[in-house]
Amino acid sequence: MRIVSAVVAALLLFSGVASATPSRGVTGTILAQWSAGGRDYTLREIVIDPGGSTGWHNHDGTLYAFVKKGVLTRTLGDCTTTFVHHRGDALVEEPNHVHIGRNLGTSPMVLEVLYVNPPGAPLSRDEPNPGCSFE
């Protein structure tokens, strides 16, 4: 199995241009990939270490996730809407919504994620911090 990061860590250092926020303490393992009905499907396990985060990002398709272990704190790009997902919780992320996932706990957090993307789309796209006081 191939290990990939939850988001591509890319910093743009151009004057006047906001930088993407890199992930910290995140690893991902692709469990399965297939295409059907004009969509690409990727099943992936993501681990976020204590204090780690996905960095600000969005998805081109819909993401379905299940919290296998720990607690995921997810904040949307408005900086005020925060969801806390505990072990056993399921969640759906709609396309093109900027957000960040963080592990504010003291043990690793594990997600099982199914990405349903347009053909050839990346699993996520890095975004700059929308102006939140963290990250």
TrEMBL record:
Residues 1-20 form the signal peptide. It comes from the Bacteria. Keywords: Signal. Residues 46-111 form the Cupin type-2 domain. It holds the Pfam family Cupin_2. This is Cupin domain-containing protein. It comes from Lentzea miocenica.
